[in-house]
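Hi Y.,

Following your request, here is the sequence exactly as I used it, all 378 residues.
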Amino acid sequence: MSVETFTFLFTDIEGSTVLLRRLREGRYAQVIADHRSLIRSGLAAHGGREVDTQGDGLFAVFSSPSACLAAVIAMQQALEAHTWPGGEHVRVRMGIHTGEASQTPNGLIGLDVHRAARVAAVGYGGQILLSETAATLVRDALPAGAALKDLGVHRLKDLGRPEHIFQLQVPGLPAEFPPLRSLGNESLPNNLPAQLSTFIGRARELAEVRALVDSSRMVTLTGAGGCGKTRLSLQVAAELLDGCGDGVWLVELAAVADPQAVPTAISGALGIVSQAGRATLESLLDALVPQDILIVLDNCEHLIDACAKTADALVRRCPRVRPIPPRRRNQRCRSCADRSRTRLHVCERRESPAARRAPRRPRPGTRPCAGGCAGSPC
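Below is the corresponding structure, written out as tokens. Let me know if you'd prefer a different format.
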């Protein structure tokens, strides 16, 4: 595989789900068509190459960082001037990063592709964000009147190395935005730990877990020890941070030996103080009744019955609390019994990033599950 240097551009429409509900399918389809047409015109005018489209997003590459910058300015100006169906004001966020990627039969593969996508994900509609690498390359060749605003260092939602992010400011385009949707944003309460590596691949599992979290009161990830249940749970939690609820929280239970201490561990992670004269679980439930939060209960294998009891109480008493308890495949708990609780089996995979994008089939190094899924979720 040949490795090349590209400037990556990711774009997507802000609030697309709400927009779809408001416009319905017909007019929303026209919004998507208009969006793609305007983006593609900018690509064609400045030497960009479209790589992929998914839903309301588009991924493109440029050989020149300066050309990418000229293209995104033209795109945002065209988007601002466009007359949208239903009188809507459609706003598109854009993220730029320069780095290396390998050209494979399944597309461009590389850590820098993921970093570019994460830079775009923390922005707002109408905002143009650049990584430190991209900003350094274009700083001395900005168009007349344009400037780079230093937004500081941010933890991105891939939970890996922080990124120094800059905002491109252009006369006539919006310049004021809320704080970035990074993990350090106080409007996105969480205690998610920084990870030493970038989350790569497993897009199918991510999409399925996110859909299950949206449709179920509790989702249990099962799988063999070491297959990545915790990492997948943390990534889903990070991607669900959007500032709308009361945050996402990790409760680490590895050091908890007493089953009766599970409610205490959850309270401690969430900063909830027990009420005098009341059981810790009751105080926890009282505090969480009005909250809209996601709780990842990690390393609960040795406390499975206590965790099941606590999670069941949370689901029954707190209508907007969603627990995710990863556990080993052969363990059973009563709280997974009814249809409001969903289990997803995560199979062990040792595939390369390129292999993850290929059609699913059994291959050496992959441990199929009992259902014969050959490395994908059951």
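The CA atoms of residues 134 and 163 lie 11 Å apart.

Thanks again,
Q.
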